[in-house]
Amino acid sequence: MVTFLLLHLLFMIHFYPEKGRILASDPRLQGEWHLLHRSIGISAMHMQLMKNNKVVMFDRTDFGPSNLSLPGRRCRYDPSDEVLKKDCTAHSIIYDIGTNTYRALTVQTDTWCSSGAVLQDGTLVQTGGFNDGDHVIRTLAPCSGDICDWVEYPRLLSERRWYASNQILPDGRVIIVGGRAQFNYEFYPRNSSSSSESISLNFLRETRDEYENNLYPFLHLLPDGNLFIFANTRSIIFDYKHNAILREFPAIPGHDPRNYPSSGSSVLLPIYDKNSRVEAEVMICGGASHNAYPLAIQGTFTRAKSTCGRLKVTDEKPAWKMENMPMPRVMGDMLILPDGDVIIINGAGSGTAGWEYARNPVKRPLIYKPNGKTNNRFSVMAAASRPRLYHSTAVLLTDGRILVGGSNPHIYYNFTGVDYPTDISLESFSPPYLSPQHDFLRPRVIGVDEILSYKKEFSLTFTVPEFLKMGTVSVRIIAPSFTTHAFSMNQRMVVLKGGGVSSIGSNVYRVDAFGPSTPEIAPLGYYLLFVVHGGIPSSGMWVKIQ
Ligand SMILES: *[C@@H]1O[C@H](CO)[C@@H](O)[C@H](O)[C@H]1NC(C)=O
Ligand SMILES: *[C@@H]1O[C@H](CO)[C@@H](O)[C@H](O)[C@H]1NC(C)=O
Ligand SMILES: *[C@@H]1O[C@H](CO)[C@@H](O)[C@H](O)[C@H]1NC(C)=O
User: What pLDDT is stored for residue 6 in this prediction?
Assistant: First the structure.
């Protein structure tokens, strides 16, 4: 007991209030990797967590045969498929987090390098792809049994959408921006009363270079309802309702493109919902060097960028603030963790995105503390055992783990005889907050309303072994991302107003908070709600904002 108290005291001295600092020499503070499956049959190129705690994953359909048979002996016939005209294997699965099991889904047209978003009713809408799939919209509704599957709507997109990005909007629609040789955007559902279905956006033409380093543009919905769009090195605030660029920011310093195939990553840092004007800050990290692509074609793999830029887009005169990661990285995935930190995971230290174009897998994730002391914001995590290069992906799970899958830098499924074989495994990374040494601080939510309303006060109850003190609790919501090609579309965290705690029983507490102020701050739909106490998050609870 005495030892425990002493340790506890030491721990408190080390970590509170100096929360910005993690002593990464302690292995328990570097997180843990777990192999969930050696094979899920497909290589997870795209991932989305659904409100039923299942993760939808898919790759492309024209890689050749995957390692998973299609259910019901159904096959896909595609005369334009470059590898198999008749394919009886699956290229999409649905993974159940709770049981760690998966089953094959049926996708009949090519989903390669496509995009997606979840509608307010929880349905995943996936848009575009390649070849016979480039104009297709596919939906997948969450269901409790084992019956849900893709529904495909051919030719529903007005343009070919290959390498486009999506964002859910405050009015419930999805905006689909760009794609290869597409300098325009469109909406889902389509506006039937409007004559032209796709609307031109010259910014996308202007930011295209010789290697098309403006694909998968970084889109973030800002708290004022406008869209932040970053392509290549440039960025704008875009009023999509009036097709008007409201402002252009200075280019990110360094002349290195950050979008695919240069493939840095981007997040909208956590939004603090307040009574005064709500601020918004974008962060972009890593990417390939500006000459990486032509050099990789010739077999020279240049060092990736180690710089990150932060831009407070709501400032009067926004300026990029640059920082250095402890190591360079291209094709890293940036995800917001429930405690408000950002994890940067997967990717390579040299080369670029594209077939066979990267080397030096970066196996160690980084955790970045946005509010930490300058020059002391990054911590280096434990190394994964597998490289996760081109076509790898990662999403946040309900319980705070990161699900990691995919990696296939080859045109086919090449499981042997290559440097970085097609990876069909599934792993999870547990960030340090999941370590048992934090259990005494970990809140467990025992009661919450599943429906939140805008501006409306609500309360939830939680238990915690040791309550620190008032002012150490906050409530926040996260919109799960559609992740592919190092960009997590629709990802956002809103730290809700409130946080006042009262004790209502032995180790039982009530916290009062307010639903988000506006649909611009948090569009309608399903979110994961987390209570954070002393820097340690609870498991996520699904709530619906309506
Ligand atoms: C998957 O791989 C295993 C091991 O190589 C093999 O035995 C099995 O037949 C494969 N299944 C399919 C559907 O390709
Ligand atoms: C649909 O198009 C019409 C005509 O262009 C326009 O007036 C209306 O605002 C549009 N609706 C939406 C939801 O954008
Ligand atoms: C990958 O496998 C295909 C056959 O499935 C083969 O034609 C190709 O050469 C392999 N690629 C490499 C890089 O070995």
Answer: 42
Domains of the chain listed by start with CATH number: 1-29 (no CATH), 31-434 (2.130.10.80), 437-545 (2.60.40.10)
Binned at pLDDT 50, 70 and 90, residue 321 comes out as very high
Q: What number does the ligand 1 atom closest to the CA of 89 have?
A: 13
65 Cα nearest atom in ligand 1 = 14
**67, 74, 75, 103: residue to mutate for ligand 1 pocket, most atoms within 8 A of CB:** 67
What's the burial of 273, exposed, middle or buried (CB within 10 Å: 0-12/13-18/19+)? buried
- By alpha-carbon position, which residue is closest to atom 4 of ligand 1? 67
Of 280, 235, 263, 265, residue with least CA distance to 409: 263
69 ligand 1 Cβ < 6 A: yes
Instruction: Find the distance separating the first CA and the last CA of the chain, reported in whole Å.
Output: 48
Q: What share of the chain is helix, strand, coil (3-state, %, to 5)?
A: 10, 35, 55
pLDDT value at residue 473 = 95
pLDDT at 194 over 70: no
Q: Whose CA is nearest to atom 11 of ligand 1?
A: 67
Residue 17 binned pLDDT confidence (cut-offs 50, 70, 90): very low
pTM comes to: 0.94
> Could you tell me the distance, in angstroms and rounded to a whole number, from the CA of residue 119 to the centre of ligand 2?
20
SS3 (DSSP) at 541: strand
39 CA distance to ligand 1 middle (Å): 9
- What is the percentage of the chain residues whose pLDDT exceeds 70? 95
